[in-house]
Specification:
With about 425 residues, the protein is an alpha/beta fold. It has 2 domains: about 230 residues, Type I PLP-dependent aspartate aminotransferase-like (Major domain) (Aspartate Aminotransferase, domain 2), CATH 3.40.640.10; about 130 residues, Aspartate Aminotransferase, domain 1 (Alpha-Beta Complex). Helices cover about 45% and strands about 15% of the residues. The chain contains 16 helices and 15 strands. A 7-stranded mixed beta sheet has the order 4-10-9-8-7-5-6, sandwiched between helices. A hairpin with an 8-residue loop joins strand 11 and strand 12. Helix 3 runs antiparallel to helix 11, helix 4 packs parallel to helix 11 and helix 5 packs across helix 10. The two termini are about 35 Å apart. Homodimer. Its cofactor is pyridoxal 5'-phosphate. Its EC number is 2.1.2.1. One of its GO terms (cellular component) is cytosol.
Amino acid sequence: MTTTPATTPVPTPHPTLSAADPELAALIGAEERLQSDTLRLIPSENYASSAVLEASGTVLQNKYSEGYPGRRYYEGQQIIDQVERLAVARAKAVFGVEHANVQPYSGSPANLAVYLAFARPGDTVMGMALPMGGHLTHGWSVSATGSWFRGVQYGVRADTGRIDLDEVRDLALKERPKIIFCGGTALPRTIDFAGFAEIAQESGAVLVADIAHIAGLIAGGAHPSPVPYADVISTTTHKTLRGPRGAMLMSRAEHAKALDKAVFPGLQGGPHNQTTAAIAVALREAAAPSFRDYAHAVVANAAALADALRARGYDLVSGGTDNHLILIDLTAKDVPGKTAAKALDRAGIVVNYNTVPYDPRKPFDPSGIRIGTPSLTSRGLSTEHMATVAEWLDRGITAAKTDNEAALLELRTEVADLLSAYPAPGLPV
């Protein structure tokens, strides 16, 4: 008689949710599998750790906490005050700042708080133009910040793809903005915080460094810090920092009162305490030596991937990258960015289509794609894998041009096979 070996049942990842709402549980499970099986190259995405995810779903969700530690409008804050103070202390330690506010709900409200603290409707503000790599909330016309304030924009040089600080200085001295933003969403090069600080001081502006994309690189010592130069630092807490979907404002002590008042009661009510806790966890992780290794690996992977793409004849904005992000101009490949991005998605390679500087195409159908290395680095992929990633991108873009679905399906299998050896943090699958 033969016996069948005993097997251990695989537990359901979300048993309570599966019982209460199987439809939603199935959707979450599908997303978990998608994040596990696909190569995520969107530079603003990453994998949060299991500890960060767990903190995000605790009973801290149940508590209203309008105000700040020791100065709340609700009772029963004995524990919540400790949680927020812990997150603030860790932010100050990791980034070396005098003041930190961990209450902003996300990056856009954090930037709105900056406007409320230092400007009035109709004032002139200055930031990088959205098509050049800036962010909507840096005074761009379709944003509330461009409607309520007079936004003036700087860009990058057409011949180099880089910011020309002489041009920025000339514009700032001409327009005399109340606020100057440096930073953006599609900047592949190191930000010269010292140069921007000189311009802000000469023009009488408050300098705000928006480090949402590079906060993790700064925390890990892989990008220069704006702390010695910027009056205010705005950042999200996910992206390269690998925390929850939240934000922080950091500053010199002299600006603490104005910023805190702008966040609450200026823009928000009660903070999301479960997010504050998850921010605290992420900042503890960012203080570990292994995080420094991760941050430098993100940059090394991006540099290696850029080299491999250039070797395959791809045009990279500014010629390459200094950080986690690569912006590819597909004009010479005769493939629109949107077409390429959608084909790559079918191949299990997740990117986003993106405008390139001086793009002749429309923003919803631009010439470029934007890629980055945070997520694949968090999974453990290294520089030795970047030639393969470049090959996959090349094959996917070529298949997009010829509408070769069979080639995309073959790629998807290869991607999933490689990633199966590199489990993603925080995923139960």
